[in-house]
Design a protein that fits this description.
The protein has six helices and nine strands. It has 197 residues and is an alpha+beta fold. The protein has a five-stranded antiparallel sheet.
């Protein structure tokens, strides 16, 4: 476990999973609920343990059977939220399985990707920069680059800091808009936006 702590302290690049995200059960979206409902309880592993600090109110350790990502559930971890609220801390994949084909993108927390076989994934990402929308900045720019890559190859690796960045002006302009959480964008629309620069 100490080895994992040291690796995660300096960079998540060497860990098997990408950026973290948290979902709370009290205000979960439909995709978030779908993800929570597929989690399977497991005995905690070392990677579960590095996400837990002394005194954290852990109520369960899980694995996402689709991505293999460990998930830790906490009760009342966030001071700004209800005392008995349950939140799930998970990790996005660094890339989707070989042969994946993007069907739709769902703007949510986290951003989700559904593939043509109906499987829902947290969008591939590293820790920083994250993926977001609703302003002009690195989050929407990184999301545009991620989507551009996924349209070409559904198993493309996550975009991360320091990589050569392909500009996606049509997608960037779209993701700079403050869309409502839960907005679903089908592949055909993403392809149209990509060529509309």
């Amino acid at each position: 476990m100490e080895c994992l702590e040291q690796v995660s302290m300096w960079s998540g690049r060497d860990l098997p999973f990408g950026g973290s995200f948290s979902i709370t059960r009290s205000d979960v979206s439909r995709p978030g609920a779908e993800w929570i409902n597929r989690l399977r309880p497991v005995r905690p592993t070392a990677i579960h343990q590095i996400w837990v600090e002394d005194g954290d109110p852990v109520v369960g350790n899980f694995i996402d059977p689709v991505t293999g990502s460990p998930v830790v559930a906490f009760m009342g971890r966030y001071a700004s939220r209800a005392h008995r609220e349950i939140s799930y801390l998970g990790r996005a994949p660094k890339q989707l399985p070989a042969g994946s084909v993007l069907k739709e993108l769902i703007l949510d927390g986290p951003i989700w990707v559904r593939t043509t076989d109906g499987v829902l994934y947290p969008a591939p990402r590293m820790d920083a920069p994250g993926l977001s929308w609703g302003y002009s900045g690195t989050g929407p720019t990184t999301l545009a680059q991620c989507v551009g890559r996924l349209l070409e190859d559904g198993a493309a690796p996550a975009v991360t800091w320091g990589m050569t960045r392909e500009r996606e002006p049509g997608l960037e302009a779209f993701f700079a808009i403050g869309h409502k959480a839960g907005t679903r964008i089908p592949r055909r629309e993403l392809e149209r936006l990509r060529t509309s620069s």
